[in-house]
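Supplementary material to the annual report.
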Amino acid sequence: MTQNISISPLTEVAFASYGDVLNCDGDPDKIINAGLCGRFHDRATVDVGNARVGISLFRSELRQLPYQLDLVERHPDGSQAFIPMSMDPFLVVVADADLQPHAFITNPGEGINFHRGTWHGVLTPLAGPGLFAVIDRIGDTPNLEEHHYDTPYFINF
Amino acid sequence: MTQNISISPLTEVAFASYGDVLNCDGDPDKIINAGLCGRFHDRATVDVGNARVGISLFRSELRQLPYQLDLVERHPDGSQAFIPMSMDPFLVVVADADLQPHAFITNPGEGINFHRGTWHGVLTPLAGPGLFAVIDRIGDTPNLEEHHYDTPYFINF
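Predicted assembly:
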């Protein structure tokens, strides 16, 4: 049996139950630096309980479509933001509580922040250097649950 | 009188008293995602006191060299990280306690995190879309002090 998932454009509405879309859509909240810089303020729900927030860098191998999804994971103790450090779209996979997956493609210059406890796929850059800043919980709990699918999903446009 | 400042390459050692350099130099701290991703773990001292950490996006006009430095600012209540969302180097200006400025140019794929209270210039992209993720304190204090130089500095290679 083959299970296929189609990739949808990433929108704030479609992604709302999984996390935040970080982009510069709309007007800036504040103009700073003598009119030369727009601040799109406080766009993510950073939630790490009473632990620390850290900034890490992830450098990932590029993936190819169709992408075979075998695994999703979640972080019960904190949110996790992926900020691309190049202007390349990347694939974002999330899953519902019943583990049904959904796939989105970002626009250039967009990041995402998974809400605490959201099932998601691993980082899947499709182009570029595969370099991301990751803002997540720094703590001493495992903060990781994994689910392996018995039958993989194939993700493509 | 003309005051000139030469731009130096950004290195961890040269920048240590001002903040953290966020890059993938050296080996990753951890290999994740079945060997396909390196995690360069917890590279910044995120320090916002007892306030929240937020993720904002800054979209800045490009600046040109020589760059005229009239102003530095500092955030007494929190650190501030600039993560470029394109692979373009940008100019980083900091100043000592006596307000003597120093200028650095990043390498592609590098961000920085100003330590709490470090005097620094405003965001100065020299190329690219001028798009940055900013990780800093979300709070209800002004958290901003500015210093205007009587005589501007001119920054160039």
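Chain A has one domain: 3-156.
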